[in-house]
C-alpha cells in the first residue's frame, strides 16, 4: 500500500511538472521579429532576445502583439490564456555600420513593396499589412493599399523601411 501511494504521488508530481512547462522564449523572439519585420539586433527589430532567465507559463493561445509607447520603442507581448505580459525593446535606429548613410530624399520604400501600416490614435495602435503604391523617402506621404483591398488607397507617412503610419486625431 505504501508503494502505491508513493507511486501515485510521484506520478501526480511529474504530471503537474509537465503541465507547467515554461514557455519556449525563442517563440516570442520569432513572433516579435515577424511583427516588426526585422530580426533581433537588426534596425527596427528587438534590441536583444527575450531574457532567458524568464520562466513564463506556456502559452496555449495565440500571442497578442502590439506596439507600446508613444515612440513605439517597445512591443507588448501578451498571452491572454496564461495571464502574462512582457515588453520587448525595439531598436529604433535605422542606420548601422553595414549601411551607407541615407541620402536626403532617398526612397526607402519602393512601389509594390510589402509594408506594415500603423494606424495610431490616442492610446492605441493598430497594425495591418499592405503594399506601397508608390516610392517614398522617410518623412514623405505615399499611397498604400491594405492587403485585402483591391482599389482603395490610403495616404500614409513613411516612418522607416517597410513601415508607414497614419495618425488619427
TrEMBL record:
Residues 107-165 form the Flagella basal body P-ring formation protein FlgA SAF domain. Gene3D superfamilies: 2.30.30.760. Residues 1-20 form the signal peptide. Pfam families: ChapFlgA. The keyword Coiled coil does not apply. Keywords: Cell projection, Cilium, Flagellum, Plasmid, Signal. This is Flagella basal body P-ring formation protein FlgA. It comes from Qipengyuania citrea.
